[in-house]
Amino acid sequence: MAGLQDSMPRAAVLSLHARVTGTTPEAWSHSSLVQLWGPRFSAYAVAAEDRAIFSLGRLPAGGAQRRRAEDLAGRLHQWLDGRAMPYSEAGRGMGVAPNSLRYAAATGTVLIRWDGAERPTVRTVERPAIDPAQARLELARRHLHVFGPSTAEGFAAWAGIAKAEALAAHKALAPGLIPVRTPLGDAWILAEQEAGFRADAGPADGVRLLPSGDAYFLLQGADRELLVPEADRRAALWTSRVWPGAVMLDGELVGTWRRAGRDVTVQPWQPMSSAERDAVTAEAQSLPLPGAANRTRVHWVA
Question: Does pTM top 0.90 for this prediction?
Answer without folding.
Answer: yes
